[in-house]
Design goal:
Layout lengths: L11 E5 L2 E5 L3 H6 L5 E3 L2 E5 H9 L4 E4 L2 E3 L1 H11 L3 H13 L4 E4 L2 E4 L13 E7 L4 E2 H13 L3 E7 L5 E9 L14 E5 L4 E3 L2 H10 L4 E2 L5 E3 L1 H9 L3 E5 L4 E2 L2 H11 L3 H13 L3 E4 L7 E4 L13 E5 L5 E2 L1 H13 L3 E8 L2 E10 L2
Parallel strand pairs: 1-5, 9-11, 13-17, 21-23
Antiparallel strand pairs: 1-2, 2-4, 3-4, 5-6, 7-8, 8-9, 10-22, 11-12, 12-24, 13-14, 14-16, 15-16, 17-18, 19-20, 20-21, 23-24
Helix pairs in contact: 2-3, 2-4, 7-8, 7-9
Length: about 350
């Protein structure tokens, strides 16, 4: 034993379903000072995770069917009774030993801020625990974010890898808005579709689109090449007219959109997000080098050029299921280059954004 208590002084609890019941006399020692358990009439009820931690700390013992369970026995029994018990215990232990008070919550745990105490200050986080092998549907994550936000909590997902290391991610719904002006509509600039990009031939028009409004990339000192997404957007705004070099006629918006979608299967999904971001006054460029669809700037000074984007944005569909390995890679890369990782999807006529970032607890 590492504590002053002798075995006969350590309170004994009874395993009862998914809780451990202690005599009410233990309240002062376990609840009033350390906030373990839930006081009930005649008992102090501990969750299985709390009980396992207190057994590990030699502060209680637990009996089941007339015999004492050691830490191994309690953990094995608890694992049979509660899903994800092992990884929840790992996270619980980590947070308690970092100085946080923790209570059960709708997402696994409610965690109080440092210095906060149950019954005296509101909890700050809802923590949801996952193993690295668990997929998580986008809509499940959104539901948890909304549940937390409805009671003014921040959602944190705690991912436990196969070596029991924990990575914490803050997750929130966010809005995207920039400070860029919009290019004048109805400009009627002539452009040509070659294969998978569009060329603006006129030097003055190229200068206007690229230097002032940050579209495209110069082909040379006089001509500008646009991505298909940029070209569709500019065509929708009647800023450019697109001719097909193969049929030598101007394409309608429907024709050009269909042609673009035939080149890239994800095009409609990406286009919806691009359109929303550009309409919100942001500068949107390819995120290919970062393994995402877009890198996004709130504002760019044309005289200085594009230096540091604030966001990486990846478009997904509403039925998307996150692979946590891929999610970890995306978030780590974004954070390593001082950007926020955002996932975007269309719902009805709107686009929603979910931001994820690593955090230190």
């Amino acid at each position: 034993m590492n504590h002053k208590d002798t075995p006969k002084d350590i309170p004994n609890g009874i395993l009862d379903g998914q809780m451990v019941k202690l005599d009410a006399s233990t309240r002062e020692n376990l609840y009033d000072t350390s906030y373990y358990g839930r006081p009930m009439d005649g008992s102090l009820d501990l969750t299985l995770i709390e009980a396992a931690y207190l057994v590990y700390k030699d502060r209680i013992t637990v009996s089941h069917e007339g015999r004492k369970l050691d830490f191994e026995g309690l953990v094995c029994e608890s694992s049979r009774r509660e899903g994800n018990f092992e990884v929840k215990y790992i996270v619980f232990k980590d947070l308690r030993e970092r100085g946080y008070f923790i209570k059960p919550g709708v997402t696994d745990f409610r965690v109080y801020p440092r210095g906060g105490k149950p019954g005296k200050t509101p909890s700050r986080y809802f923590v949801h625990v996952l193993t690295e092998r668990q997929p998580i549907p986008l809509m499940d994550l959104v539901h948890q974010v909304q549940t937390a936000a409805n009671v003014r909590k921040d959602l944190v997902i705690a991912v436990v890898d196969e070596e029991s290391d924990i990575t914490y991610y803050e997750v929130k719904l966010t809005s995207m808005k920039g400070d860029m002006g919009k290019a004048a509509e109805d400009a009627g600039i002539r452009a040509t579709l070659l294969e998978d990009r569009v060329i603006v031939w006129d030097a003055l028009s190229s200068e206007l689109l690229h230097t002032q409004h940050l579209y495209g990339k110069p082909l040379d000192e006089s001509r500008l090449q646009l991505s298909l997404i940029e070209a569709v957007y500019l065509q929708e705004k009647n800023i450019i007219l697109i001719e097909d070099s193969r049929v030598e006629r101007t394409l309608t918006q429907t024709e050009f959109s269909e042609t673009s979608a035939a080149v890239e299967t994800e095009f409609p999904m990406k286009m919806a997000v691009y359109r929303h971001l550009r309409d919100a006054g942001m500068v949107v460029k390819t995120g290919y080098k970062f393994g995402t669809h877009f890198r996004v700037y709130k504002k760019v000074d044309p005289s200085v050029g594009m230096r540091h984007s604030e966001f990486l944005v990846h478009a997904v569909d509403g039925g998307h299921v996150f692979n946590l390995l891929h999610l970890s890679r995306a978030v780590r890369l974004a954070n390593s280059v001082r950007k926020q990782m955002v996932f975007a999807w269309q719902t009805g006529d709107d686009i929603l954004y979910l931001e994820l970032g690593r955090m230190k607890m």
